[in-house]
Design a protein that fits this description.
homodimer, alpha/beta, four-stranded parallel sheet, 12 strands, 43% helix, 15% strand, elongated, DNA-binding
Chain lengths: 337, 337
Amino acid sequence: MPATIHDVARALSLSITTVSRALDGYADVAAGTRQRVIATAQAMGYTPNRAARQLRRRRTDTLGYILPAEEGGFTDPFFTEFIAGLGDACAKHHYDLLVSTAAPNSAQELALYQRWVQGGKVDGMIINRTRLADWRLDFLTERNIPHVTLEQSPAQKNFIGIEVDIESGYHDLVAHLVNRGHSRIAYIGGPEMLKIEQDRCAAYHLALHTHDILPAPELLTRANLTAEGGFQAATYLLDLHLPPTAIVCINDLTAMGAMHAIHERGLKVGRDIAVAGFDGIADSAHTQPPLTTLDQPVYTIARQLVGMLLQNLNGQTLEVPQVKIQPTLRIRASTGG
Amino acid sequence: MPATIHDVARALSLSITTVSRALDGYADVAAGTRQRVIATAQAMGYTPNRAARQLRRRRTDTLGYILPAEEGGFTDPFFTEFIAGLGDACAKHHYDLLVSTAAPNSAQELALYQRWVQGGKVDGMIINRTRLADWRLDFLTERNIPHVTLEQSPAQKNFIGIEVDIESGYHDLVAHLVNRGHSRIAYIGGPEMLKIEQDRCAAYHLALHTHDILPAPELLTRANLTAEGGFQAATYLLDLHLPPTAIVCINDLTAMGAMHAIHERGLKVGRDIAVAGFDGIADSAHTQPPLTTLDQPVYTIARQLVGMLLQNLNGQTLEVPQVKIQPTLRIRASTGG
DNA sequence: TAAATTTCCCAAAACGTTTTGGGTTATAAT
DNA sequence: ATTATAACCCAAAACGTTTTGGGAAATTTA
């Protein structure tokens, strides 16, 4: 049974009030007393009970994040980095991070929101993989729960969060490909409900248009953001009567799958066909050949999101509620570098 | 301000006791009453305040896990899968998962243990990347906090957790390499303080011994479990007067870095030099060439760990407190398949 | 009909904090 | 020698639940 504030108070013949205030750094406790309190609290191994403190303070010092996992294990390194960033930033601010998994739009996801948000288990939520019509945002705004999102949903008012400038990223990427002589440029996207798919697909079209390339409908395909999905989509593309000479992928994992499919055909990525990804996961530098990608600083983004959320939570109005981040084009051998 | 149990009780002219018991499924409340309670609770959007419940129940229904992150982002897909497994299993049992990051043996790590364990924020902890002398285990056993570990630390008494059978795994792997004519087999390990490094290094030596191969000291090297580390270690190995013909790596990420280094020399992995990993992360099937690896079912392991921890938490004695899991050897092109 | 049992409900205590609103000494100002 | 001020300290009231130990009314049993 861990020591309570009463134990500490009794040991010192003080009131619990004084102990509490001494530890919390209030000015109305004598320096000597504070010393003794801190010393014996330390000696007795006293740490305030979180539940009691939360109950009284009406705040939990905890943020929530739900990993958009479909049934079964999944391993996009993007999320390791994202969670690492969230966890690190939270720890730095003495906040805790609650994590769970739920398939998008599942009953479990809703149940989690009820438990966490309505049950007051978290003070705020971090959301990514924003959807076009996203009930999570409605849920949170209705209840006035602070939250930040990685990409902005169209309907979203008073958006606080970060957006990656896809348009300029894809512009640069496609320019690079066109420079290298490509004009049959395919696109492997993700689920249509996702904001990033919408954006990247649109940016892809815009970039083609800028370079006076007519988009070929058969070169527009979708997968599920995994290597396996990229493998299948690329297989389809390679089976086309007139296959593409370059493939732009919605994320690095998809690109890795696509490269695998290409190699399996005996073709050489970078020479016979160009492949590009998006994310800049650490592995992308070590694939064979190394992957050209639009690198977004996931770790930094995650930390910054937490920072914004905490500012918002503490009632400060953000000078810049919407941050736009430029991805940087890393040209590597997979596009013939 | 979310609705409390008092609001519900008032709306129904019932006592809060009855509301509480109705929702918790006690038998001593009339069927009709229970209906009404559930209905209005639902209508009012009532969800029990977690802090209050935790305080009273003296349990939090929350487990803790600390990501062993060094400063800066890191992206071993192993951890995405591990966390996904933990999160999924927790969610299924209506438990929550608290996650943070801390560098091993750092002050932050200790602070987290105090906040979470002594502050009663979690009911139990999940530990992996076990160390040879691991204060975390002492901390928890001293305070009688339930916990499970992925690998057993040498000093650990009453070990509850899972161990992967590395010995048999490495035996099979080395046999496979010897079969293909290799005898200069190098090893790229990880930090010496880690249990897995100790085990895998020992298993590597044992497997060599079994095949009457004398271990060459210069072929034994260590990195830091990242692709970058693997890249550097492999570079060192390739620079040797008499380089190895095969490289066994402590994990897949290291192997990916090693493959990169090999390609950069103009050598072909699988033909000129064999590379093998450990983990079986999803990407390993899509590297070029696909990576031979010892596949451990991380997702399943994580879920099972949670299951064991919860059993232990609920006072059940585990029939099998120590589970041993066999990794399966996936032979792919990186070893000349 | 009286006693025993069952059915349904509730008041009050407890969980461990933080915060409010003073209160009691000692010190400083008049 | 008062009175104001400052420096320390504390009792009690929350925070929102769950649990304990009944208690009253309805039903069954004798």
